[in-house]
């Protein structure tokens, strides 16, 4: 392939991304550019509606391909029935109606796929800042893991508390509360940060209104689900509620799960737990999840059990 052919390919890719003046040279487009919508996505129409982008290398850069606008992007060119395509796409968040270029994906959905993947990887590896924990008055403890890389390779250590954590819990936490709430980064930092404000206040208020006393709010860094058993055993809470970041998917990276268990011990197993997953704006909204969790805890207290033994 000679240089001219390479330049042509680069130019055509940049054009598909919305770059009008590109001649094989990367130029920036403004972030408020709104022309990639379902109505004008089919190739040539995009070209005609575009303003000339500013020259130079300053400015906000290419648009974020992880946004809603690109999630709704329809890439089928010349469909027989546009409204059927739009109707299909509206009904699911799955990657459908994105078109294809011969046997390969079109550039926009391909790049969106990579952007979503990058977002998911980021949320696994990003740390929750200590300032964020202080702002929310959370008592920080840590598992036996010392960094994110180790977290991913040693789940066994994420299930156990560090010696320092045991000391902090013993010295600083309320003993024998009815419900102990624990928050943990788990596999998604965004899950905690994005859902916290809408989940925690209604959850704590709901538990209080139900006459259930809660313990000191604890944040477990590098936590795995099983760690809630050790915390529960140490603090002797009747119910332990763990809010933990779920493994992210390609379309969803800020989903939180609630794992709840009645009187956990080191002998507890997975079937002793009850899980409410998919807590995020596009799934079970956090406020609604708070109400569901309160009902769940009430049921656990009434039946004095959890997991598969709990009747709901
Ligand atoms: C990874 C995963 C698994 C893995 C866990 C392996 C591992 N060691 O990590 C495997 C494949 C083993 C698994 C199995 C099951 N899973 Co699963 N799993 C998930 C998934 C995709 C991510 C969980 C996650 O991110 N956890 C957070 C991290 C930080 O936790 P962790 O400590 O690393 O891992 C623990 C948890 O993942 C937990 N766990 C995983 N699945 C389940 C299911 C239940 C009911 C419980 C109590 C705990 C649990 O077990 C792990 C070890 O302690 C979720 C989907 C989601 N959106 O959350 C479904 C999900 C949690 N699983 C689900 C189900 C139904 C199951 C099974 C019952 C399937 C089956 N019929 O066999 C089994 C039961 C597991 C058990 N041990 O009893 C459902 C739960 C639905 C519900 N509300 O009850 C979910 C929500 C998927 C779904 N949408 O249907 N699962």
Q: How would you summarize the topology of this molecule?
A:
Layout: H1 3-16, H2 44-48, H3 68-71, H4 82-90, E1 100-101, E2 104-105, H5 107-125, H6 130-135, E3 139-142, H7 148-153, H8 155-158, H9 163-172, E4 179-184, H10 189-209, E5 218-221, H11 227-235, E6 239-245, E7 256-262, E8 273-279, H12 286-303
Parallel strand pairs: 3-5, 4-5, 4-6
Antiparallel strand pairs: 1-2, 6-7, 7-8
Helix pairs in contact: 10-12
Bound molecules: cobalamin.
Brief characterization of the structure:
The relative contact order is 0.10. The chain is elongated, with a radius of gyration of 24 Å. It contains 12 helices and 8 strands.
Write structural notes for this entry.
- Helices cover 40% and strands 12% of the residues.
- With 312 residues, it is an alpha/beta fold.
- It has two domains: 3-125, Ethanolamine ammonia-lyase light chain (EutC), N-terminal domain (DNA Binding (I), subunit A); 130-309, Rossmann fold, CATH 3.40.50.11240.
- It has a six-stranded mixed sheet, with helices on both faces.
- α10 (189-209) crosses α12.
- The N and C termini lie far apart (65 Å).
- 31% of the residues are buried.
Features of this protein?
312 residues; Rossmann fold; 2 domains; two-stranded antiparallel ribbon; 12 helices; 40% helix
Q: Count the domains.
A: 2
Shape verdict:
elongated
CATH topology of the largest domain, which one?
Rossmann fold
- Please tally the β strands and state the result: 8
- Indicate the CATH architecture of the largest domain: 3-Layer(aba) Sandwich
**The first-level CATH class name of the largest domain:** Alpha Beta
């Amino acid at each position: 392939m000679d240089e001219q052919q390479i330049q042509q390919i680069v130019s055509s890719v940049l054009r598909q991304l919305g770059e009008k003046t590109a001649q094989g040279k990367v130029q920036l487009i403004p972030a408020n550019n709104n022309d990639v919508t379902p109505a004008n996505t089919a190739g040539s129409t995009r070209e005609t509606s575009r303003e000339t982008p500013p020259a130079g290398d300053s400015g906000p850069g290419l648009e974020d391909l992880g946004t809603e606008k690109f999630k709704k992007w329809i890439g089928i060119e010349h469909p027989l029935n546009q409204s059927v395509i739009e109707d299909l796409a509206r009904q699911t968040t799955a990657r459908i109606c994105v078109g294809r270029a011969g046997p390969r994906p079109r550039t926009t959905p391909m790049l969106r796929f990579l952007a979503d993947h990058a977002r998911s990887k980021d949320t696994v590896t990003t740390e929750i800042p200590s300032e964020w924990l202080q702002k929310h008055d959370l008592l920080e403890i840590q598992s036996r893991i010392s960094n994110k890389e180790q977290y991913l390779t040693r789940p066994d250590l994420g299930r156990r508390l560090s010696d320092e954590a045991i000391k902090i819990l013993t010295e600083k936490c309320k003993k024998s509360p009815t419900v102990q709430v624990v928050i943990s980064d788990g596999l998604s930092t965004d899950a905690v940060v994005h859902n916290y404000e809408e989940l925690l206040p209604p959850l704590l208020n709901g538990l209080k209104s139900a006459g259930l006393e809660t313990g000191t709010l604890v944040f477990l860094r590098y936590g795995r689900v099983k760690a809630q058993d050790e915390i529960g055993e140490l603090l002797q809470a009747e119910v332990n509620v763990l809010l933990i970041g779920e493994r992210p998917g390609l379309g969803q990276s800020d989903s939180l799960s609630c794992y709840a268990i009645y009187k956990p011990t080191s002998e507890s197993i997975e079937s002793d737990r009850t899980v409410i997953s998919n807590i995020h704006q596009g799934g079970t909204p956090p406020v609604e999840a708070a109400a569901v969790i309160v009902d769940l805890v009430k049921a656990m207290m009434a039946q004095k059990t959890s997991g598969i033994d709990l009747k709901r």
